[in-house]
Specification:
The chain is mainly α. The chain contains six helices and two strands.
Length: about 220
């Protein structure tokens, strides 16, 4: 085991307030799972069944939209349950029933890399979407929504700003808090954790800024 990455002798009193809280807090995983399941069922599966609330217009290919909503719902629900696994032994040790590798420890990076990747996508999607939709509603930019035969653009922008994008942002925050708990509970050293978290936060901020300007420049 790499001593630079792991420190099994880390004392609880060396953790700052956030780290102490994060190491003990498992509720973000459960709330995140509930948040994902509710969105999957009441939004994506509802739209897959032909529901039109939140879709103020007529899509060019309704069947394609319904299938995309169904697939998205399944993936979102799966991601919610994956968050639960990060606060359970399943996220650290391969189940014994798995042939050849059962009972072996799972390297934290094997879990953290995809989790943090998805977290970044969720947060950036939410932040950039809320900013650009706000600019659109303020009349500063004009967003073109393609693949619609008819559309109330103002209503869709409001739905995005007040409902869809906040869901992405909150889901990303819950996912990030769960990843933080997993990292600390897995024995990763504080030095690695703190440096990685700082670098990650800077990366997410820069990526959000990039996407906002990319959208604005594309519309210019």
């Amino acid at each position: 085991m790499n001593e630079k990455m792991y420190n099994l002798d880390t004392q609880t009193d060396s953790l700052n307030a956030f780290e102490q809280w994060s190491k003990k807090a498992v509720w973000p995983a459960y709330i995140g799972c509930l948040w994902a399941v509710m969105y999957a069922v009441f939004v994506r599966f509802y739209q897959a069944a032909g529901g039109t609330i939140g879709l103020p217009g007529q899509y060019e290919n309704p069947e394609a939209l319904q299938m995309a909503s169904y697939v998205a719902g399944v993936l979102i629900m799966a991601c919610g349950f994956i968050l639960i696994s990060l606060v359970k032994p399943l996220g650290r040790v391969v189940p014994n029933r798995v042939p050849f590798i059962g009972g072996k420890n799972i390297h934290p990076l094997f879990i953290l890399i995809p989790t943090l990747f998805c977290t970044a996508i969720l947060i950036v999607h939410g932040i950039s979407g809320m900013i650009t939709k706000s600019l659109h509603l303020a009349g500063i930019i004009t967003i073109q929504f393609t693949d619609w035969t008819s559309l109330d653009v103002h209503s869709l922008a409001l739905w995005s700003l007040l409902f869809y994008e906040p869901w992405f942002l909150i889901m990303g925050i819950l996912s990030g808090l769960t990843a933080s708990h997993y990292a600390l509970a897995s024995g990763i050293s504080l030095r690695v954790f703190r440096r990685s978290m700082l670098a990650y936060l800077i990366f997410v901020c820069l990526l959000s800024i990039y996407y906002v300007f990319a959208i604005i420049l594309k519309l210019a």
